[in-house]
Write a structure and sequence with these properties.
heterodimer; A: alpha/beta; Glutaredoxin; two-stranded antiparallel ribbon; 6 helices; 7 strands; B: about 120 residues; mainly alpha; Helicase, Ruva Protein, domain 3; 5 helices; flat
C-alpha cells in the first residue's frame, strides 16, 4: 500500500511539473496558423462607390488575391501603404481593399494623397464583414488563391519580408 | 373533438418549441466570448471596437436562428478556440475535460482505501 501511495504521489508530482512546463513554454501570442489552408468564407461586400457587390466569384477570377483591411484613421496602414503600392505593380495579384469602419471623405483623401494600390475597393462600415475573415484589428491582409484557399494571413502592417514572401508565392 | 384536442396539442408544442428557439441569450454569449484585444475581459465587459463588432455579429447570428453552440462554433472557426472561455470538447481538449473526473475517481478510491485501512 505504501508503495502505491509513493508511486501515486510521484506520478501526480511529475504530471503537475509536466503541465507547468508545457504551459510555460507554449507560445501564447495570437497565431493565425489555424486560419490558413482553409477555404475563404462566403462574403458579399459592397463596393466603395456603392455601385456593386464583391463576392467569392470575384476572387475566383484571379490567380491570387490579397484582401487588405485598412482605414484612414489607422496609423500602421500608412506604414504598410508603400508596400501595397509596390505589390500593385506586380502581375498575378489582385488587391481587394476593404475600407474598415471609416468615413468616406477621409478614405478618399487618404488614397489621393498616398496613392491607390487597390484593383477592387470595398467598404465595411460596421466591421461585420471583417469578422467573417477573422479580423480583429487593422491592418490585416489575407492572401487567397484561385481555389479560394487562404494561403497566408498577415496581422499588422505588411513588412518588406512579407512583400518578398508574397512575391515568392505568386511567381 | 379528438381532432381539436390534437390540434391544440400541436399548437401548444409548436409554440413551445418556438419559444425555446427564441431563448438564446446574447448576454450569456457575450460573457462566454473573450475580447481578443483586451486584457482578460469578455466581450460583455469590454467597450472596445472589437467587442462592439462581435456584439453586432452575435445579434445577426441569433436573428438568423443560430443556436448558442453554433455561434461559439462560428467564432472558434474564425478566431480559433482562444475566443471561447469554455473550450469545446475535442481531441486536443479531451484531457482538460476528462482529467477532473479521473482525479475524482482516483481521489475517491484513495480516500476509501485509506479509511478502510485505518479501520
Amino acid at each position: 500500500m505504501q508503495k502505491i501511495i509513493k508511486i501515486t504521489i510521484l506520478f501526480i508530482f511529475l504530471f503537475v511539473i509536466g503541465i507547468f512546463y508545457i504551459s510555460l513554454t507554449r507560445d501564447t501570442n495570437y497565431n493565425t496558423s489555424s486560419l490558413t489552408n482553409k477555404e475563404a468564407p462566403e462574403f458579399k461586400i459592397i463596393s466603395f462607390d456603392n455601385s456593386n457587390f464583391f463576392t467569392r466569384d470575384d476572387i475566383k477570377k484571379n490567380n491570387y488575391t490579397l484582401i487588405n483591411f485598412w482605414a484612414s484613421w489607422c496609423a500602421p496602414c500608412k506604414i504598410e501603404h508603400p508596400i501595397l503600392m509596390k505589390l500593385s505593380q506586380t502581375k498575378n495579384l489582385v488587391i481587394l481593399g476593404i475600407n474598415f469602419k471609416d468615413k468616406e471623405p477621409q478614405a478618399k483623401t487618404f488614397l489621393s494623397e498616398l496613392g491607390n494600390p487597390y484593383d477592387l475597393l470595398a467598404k465595411d462600415k460596421n466591421g461585420k464583414q471583417s469578422v467573417r475573415f477573422g479580423v480583429y484589428g487593422i491592418p490585416e491582409s489575407i492572401l487567397i488563391n484561385k481555389d479560394l484557399m487562404i494561403i497566408q494571413k498577415f496581422v499588422g502592417p505588411l513588412s518588406f519580408e512579407d512583400y518578398n514572401n508574397i512575391i515568392k508565392i505568386i511567381e | 373533438m379528438k381532432l381539436n384536442f390534437f390540434l391544440l396539442l400541436f399548437i401548444f408544442f409548436s409554440k413551445f418549441s418556438f419559444a425555446v428557439e427564441k431563448t438564446v441569450d446574447p448576454n450569456l454569449i457575450h460573457k462566454n466570448l473573450r475580447c481578443l484585444v483586451c486584457q482578460g475581459q469578455s466581450i460583455s465587459d469590454s467597450n472596445s471596437d472589437f467587442a462592439q463588432t462581435i456584439k453586432l455579429v452575435v445579434k445577426d447570428l441569433i436573428d438568423e436562428g443560430k443556436t448558442e453552440d453554433e455561434i461559439y462554433e462560428f467564432m472558434s472557426d474564425k478566431y480559433g478556440d482562444w475566443i471561447v472561455f469554455k473550450p469545446r470538447f475535442n481531441t486536443q481538449n479531451s484531457l482538460l475535460w476528462i482529467l477532473p473526473y479521473i482525479a475524482l475517481i482516483f481521489g475517491g478510491f484513495f480516500i476509501f482505501s485509506f479509511l478502510k485501512k485505518r479501520q
